[in-house]
Amino acid sequence: MLEIxxxxxxxxxxxxxxxxxxxxxxxxxxxxxxxxxxxxSTLANVLAGRDNYxxxxxxxxxxxxxxxxxxxxxxxxxxxxxxxxxxxEIPGVxxxxxxxxxxxxxxxxxxxxxxxxxxxxxxxxxxxxQVNLDASFLKRGVNEGFSGGEKKRNEIMQMLLMExxxxxxxxxxxxxxxxxxxxxxKGVNSLRSPERGIVLVTHYQRLLDYIVPDFVHVLSNGQIIxxxxxxxxxxxxxxxxxxxxxxxxxx
Amino acid sequence: xxxxxxxxxxxxxYEAGFTTTxxxxxxxxxxxxxxxxFLSAKKGEPEWMLEWRLDSYHKxxxxxxxxxxxxxxxxxxxxxxxxxxxxxxxxxxxxxxxEVDPELLATYEKLGIPxxxxxxxxxxxxxxxxxxxxxxxxxxxxxxxxGVIFCSISEAIQNHPELIKKYMGSVVPKGDNFYAxxxxxxxxxxxxxxxxxxxxxxxxxxxxFRINEANTxxxxxxxxxxxxxxYVSYLEGCTAPQRDENQLHAAVVELVALPGAEIKYSTVQxxxxxxxxxxxxxxxxxxxRGVAHDxxxxxxxxxxxxxxxxxxxxxVILRGDNSIGEFxxxxxxxxxxxxxxxxxxxxxxxxxxxTIISKGISAGRSSNxxxxxxxxxxxxxxxxxxxxxxxxxxxxxxGAHTFPYIESKNPSATIEHEATTSKVSDDQMxxxxxxxxxxxxxxxxxxxxxxxxxxxxxxxxxxVEAGKLLEVSLEGAVG
Lengths: 251, 479
Description:
CATH class of the domain at 2-89 and 164-245 in chain A: Alpha Beta
Low-confidence stretches of chain B: 117-122
Structural class of chain A: alpha/beta
Radius of gyration of chain A: 18 Å
Mean pLDDT of chain A: 92
Oligomer: heterodimer
Number of helices of chain B: 11
Shape of chain B: globular
CATH topology of the domain at 2-89 and 164-245 in chain A: Rossmann fold
CATH architecture of the domain at 2-89 and 164-245 in chain A: 3-Layer(aba) Sandwich
Strand content of chain A: 25-35%
Order of helices and strands of chain A: EEEHEEHEEHHEHEHEEEHH
Helix content of chain A: 25-40%
Structural class of chain B: alpha/beta
């Protein structure tokens, strides 16, 4: 479903990705690991289409269409979801209002049945419950005054409702305590299905104890330098990244 | 989001910009004593009213237009303005809607304001002012039963002279300022409301102002008196055709809240703002003020999206003890629009309380200024004020300014002031778009969220209207 070939990308004209290859098939969970500055978050943002993140070479195909040709909202409508590393606040716009607009657009584009407000509310409450967020969060402004952990759980709540084909999680584990981490992992695991691809971008192996990946890739200096199964993550935990990158940094 | 995308987004059409063809009697441009005598005679006004107008005119002759506002415009020459225009079909005042010119009815239908009572929003009575004249007031009889007087100011001068003599000019004196003096001399029509003691007005009252004729000024005058312990909610809406010339609008609104009364005054102002190069548009110079007596409350809510120039400071004189004044404002400027708007809260009584929430949104090459005065007089023990001014910038070619003035002459006062300036951030836009929301909808959602604190003060159906108006104002294709 996701086919990345020799991808080169820049952030504000600075080259970050330098020939990246990755294939994600439906039903697979991939973990992208690597030291700080290796380009992990860049990959997630390039795929989602953030401003200033430009593809300069190679290609990224999502279900056969080139992502470079799609606006960010079109990528979302096609079923690509990004859980943000730093979810931003939108004061005065309630979570519910936001979800309604998002779901109308995405479900509409995918030809799914439209949810009336009763169904929407029921579904949203259920999703909140799944990530241990009180239903009162639906009435609050998007991420407005939420704690770091609440913001991350809010992202997963949205993801559960949006039912994406491909979910990208950008360092969703950062800043979470162990309880919140388990909650988030439970939410993500509930989305695992033979039709869905999941890409976890993470610095630490810890998240992978709870969401066990099928594949682990190590990203360094804009390229994937090693791929393996879940055991690779444990190896990285023990040895750090230095033995792969030739640098002294450790996890 | 790039500047080019933003530019497209804020380039949209003015939907109320059409003209109505009616046969009108319009006075040639210019102002003199003769014009005022003509006006007054046309309306069959009593002698005392004419005297009042002439006195105002003489005061006005001595005054010059204010230059302290953060506004730039060529000097306004009143000799180019016509001070009277009236559709001929209204020569004999229509007694029922069947007698109103169908062209006029069609105009209001087109603007989304059906005048047939059965089609109207339940519970809103409307007075409709077209150029210089009140066209029709709906639900008059129902209001009569409750003892509420709701009619055009011209009718009130004829039928309720005692109330007019007592209260007109009591809040905004004839010589208050250049534009108020001009209005006092030449005011054409407007609405009059009187709510008797202890009466809660059974429906929302509303006036809809429309400028149609070219080169015509609109000088309406509104007077609302809420007697002891009464309550009224009043709405005001405005539009004008799209014309290349600037047109002058100088209104005066006076509110009197007697002890224990409450007046809620809401405005959705959408006069033609001019095109993106600053051609045309209404010059809106308005004086709005209320006096709050003991234990009374006056609340101004305004949503300002129109006019080439807005000069407007709805104010409250907190004369009585325990009185409350509120000002909630959303001002949106785009293209070359200039707004200098805010409020004055004058605390005279003890334990008086005022709240100011101002939201300015600037786009295009516009300039948006908040100007507010909070004055605590020496005898205003335990006065409290809370002010919050937030500015939101769309793009980097517009300007937002805040000029708060605080004068406290009583040490027991509590005054809080908060101000923020922010931009619709790329991160907010990206979050919305990543969730499948198109940029146009995203901007409108973010702007509406920014205005939420003010919108929740508007009556329900107006809040929806205001939200839509912002959406239309921000509408446009996005590439």
